[in-house]
Amino acid sequence: MSSKQDVRKYLRQHLEVLEPYRGVETIDSLAARYGLDVSQIVKLDANENPYGPSPLVYQALANLQDINRYPDPLSTSLRRKIAEYAGVTTEQVLVGAGADEIIELLIRLFVGTGEAVVDCQPTFSMYSLFTLQNAGEVIDVPRGDDWNIDLQSILKVLAAWPVKLVFICSPNNPTGNLVSEQDVVRLLDTGIPVVIDEAYYEFAGKTFVGLLPRYPNLFIVRTFSKLAGLAGLRVGYLLASEIIVNELLKIKQPYNVTVAGQAAALASLQDIDRLQDNVRRLVEERERMFTKLREQGVLQPYPSKANFLLCRVNGDAKLVREELAKRGIFVRHFSKPRIQDCLRVSVGLPEHTDRLIEALDDIKNSVLIG
Q1: Facing residues of 333 across strands?
Q2: CB atoms < 10 A from the CB of 155, how many?
């Protein structure tokens, strides 16, 4: 290719070093790759809700009208129902195409070229990825050995650098632990914008919404993927001050949430008791799986307040992941520092846990160290 034909020279230079995000594969893709029937797949690699959506969602989608028309650009009805559910005003809600869009919008709003955000690894990779995509800088303040944030180190960074955003995931993905309200208040008292990602809030029952009236620099991100089983429809939302919501409306895409996504999320909120009952069952199964894994021995789980368990592997984590995959059970391995020897296991149905334990028993002698 001649230099005249190479359009890459016109690309934004900071993007050259980035790698594409590798999401999890679909059930069909996994079945084909491992020569399995889709009925054999136990998918515990993406923290999806195994109970799926409310029946009201399927009814709402079947009854959709006027899909030849653009969706409501402000998601007005959905914002109103979210506000009722979250205990805020409608003006404090912004709806996005998944929590990912909300996170990216916040970075675009606050972070300019070369400006910094604080990230606390290991944590959700989108905070750093979106920052780098937008030519920002990431200051990683690693978590402690107990996976709690290192508050004093963060405060030192905030005092020394002109940080624009601090990202805290609670419960944290992939470690499953909560951040304390005391630590959040200390960060908010600096005046610097703090984003609390509450994607897994319903599984922990701990939210920071009560701090919103006192702290206009607090932004809370949530999703319908985990609670409502709508991962495939991409609906998330922000809870923040009316001022920030209005600023974000200036930069968001006008028709960002589809007609189907808005209808499904509205139907979900109309059946919240059913969804919360599913959450209760998943929490119960999380605790049963924790006990079973501790007894079985190959995976040693950390306590979690989310719908997954991070597990230290007593052996080769990649090998264990691959051996489970051959048996139709898919869990998540990370190449991130400090958790390369871990696997993250989503909480599924009771029969999924049983399949997992059976598979671990089957491979135990071939993968166990010591």
Answers
A1: 343
A2: 16
| Pair of tokens at residue 359 | 């598979």
Q: Which domains does the chain have, with CATH numbers?
A: 7-51+273-367 (3.90.1150.10), 55-272 (3.40.640.10)
Query: How close are the terminal C-alpha atoms of the chain, in Å?
Result: 54
Q: How is 204-236 classified by DSSP, letter by letter?
A: HT---GGGTTT-TTEEEEEESTTTSS-GGG--E
| pLDDT at residue 15 in the model | 85
The string over 174-192, giving b where at least 16 C-beta atoms fall within 10 Å of a residue's C-beta and e elsewhere, is: bbbbbbeeebbeebbeeeb
Structure tokens at 76: 């007005």
| Residue 243 neighbours by CB distance under 10 Å | 11
CA dist., res. 186 & res. 152, Å (int): 10
Name the DSSP class of 190.
Answer: T
The percent of the chain in helix, strand and coil, each rounded to the nearest 5, is: 45, 15, 40
Q: Would strands 116-119 and 163-169 be described as parallel, antiparallel, or unpaired? A: parallel
pLDDT of the residue at 369 = 58
> What pLDDT shows up at residue 9?
84
- φ, ψ of residue 12 in degrees (nearest 5): -65, 125
Establish whether the linkage from the previous residue to 162 is cis, with ω within 30° of 0. Answer: no
Contact 331, 345 (CB under 8 A): yes
Residue 292's alpha-carbon distances to 270, 287, 301, 358, 360, in angstroms, are: 35, 9, 10, 11, 11
Give pLDDT, residue 202. 98
Give Cα 285 to chain centroid, integer Å.
20
What predicted TM-score, i.e. pTM, was given to this entire model?
0.95
Please tell me the total number of residues recorded for the chain in this structure: 370
User: Which regions of the chain are under pLDDT 70?
Assistant: 1-4, 368-370
* 236 phi, psi to nearest 5 deg: -135, 175
